[in-house]
């Protein structure tokens, strides 16, 4: 049942091309227009939406943070991401024009369930992005958009994360299509490009040998930092979470722009820092800004482990290691850049002799508040 792999997590990392492909399957018609049969909310109601709040916990919340950048870009609807356990107690501003999107692999996370119930009481329209058929959160929501990642057994979430980003993108593009005009133009071209992502993940998975080696050498590491910007910022947070959960190593993810506002003081000789570099095609010169960050931390002795697009040569002079990912448009990059971070955490945990699938103190689904 582990498909020949030693752990469920390793298998699930390799399931990711399918998780993305299956989540896209059947969601477009012959002309490439999005059709969401399961979206049992009227177009009138959806067109009236003037604010989106995403509620989720842990990795699912990082998927929500990634989705915020994309949905706002495509629809110009303001999106807020709230940790489900905070949402309920912060007197949230929600009404019948608010679309509350919950994201949950299990569909049973109590914090997320309570947030959804609270949102409904306040009159919001609720959509659940969920991986488990028949679970509680979809039942308590107005509509559900299933992620088709297949059962995820390892406690650390991997393929569900990619499927969650994919499903949220589908939802965002569907809303853009409903809005019509120039918004709708994005929908078809992005869906087309998304269709090519599974093959890119497959290619990437085939070139993870060096990441595995790096992880093995780092079994004694006490702290690892992760930097990213724009959609790479939640990916940095996710990379840090994977390492905490699986290898019990102190890890922190930062927005790269925040470095000079404090965290750069943590850099001392030998400190490993992963940097998720934005695509050179990113707007506002973000790529160059992150390359400068790499230069700054390297000058202070950091060991820089750089995740950069194929062909991005600007990072090479400042990188101790360059981990390549296939080129994509900037908003789709998270579906690739997170993979080496998952693989790194898997092999570091293995190198420490830990239980990859069942890390200490954690449960697959957190059914208490
Ligand atoms: O089942 P859910 O997606 O609602 O679970 C949410 C979090 O508990 C979950 O993502 C957790 O953070 C994972 N262990 C991360 O690997």
UniProtKB/TrEMBL annotation:
Domain SIS, residue spans: 41-181, 214-359
Known EC number: 2.6.1.16
Record: active site: 364 (for fru-6p isomerization activity)
Location in the cell: Cytoplasm
Reaction(s) catalysed by this chain's protein: D-fructose 6-phosphate + L-glutamine = D-glucosamine 6-phosphate + L-glutamate
GO MF annotations in UniProt: transaminase activity
Principal location listed in the UniProt entry: cytoplasm
Keyword Repeat: yes
Enzyme class: transferase
Alphabetically ordered keywords of this record: Aminotransferase, Cytoplasm, Glutamine amidotransferase, Repeat, Transferase
Domain of life per record: Bacteria
Free-text function comment from the UniProt entry: Catalyzes the first step in hexosamine metabolism, converting fructose-6P into glucosamine-6P using glutamine as a nitrogen source.
Assembly and interaction partners: Homodimer.
Protein name in the entry: Glutamine--fructose-6-phosphate aminotransferase [isomerizing]
Native species: Terrabacter tumescens
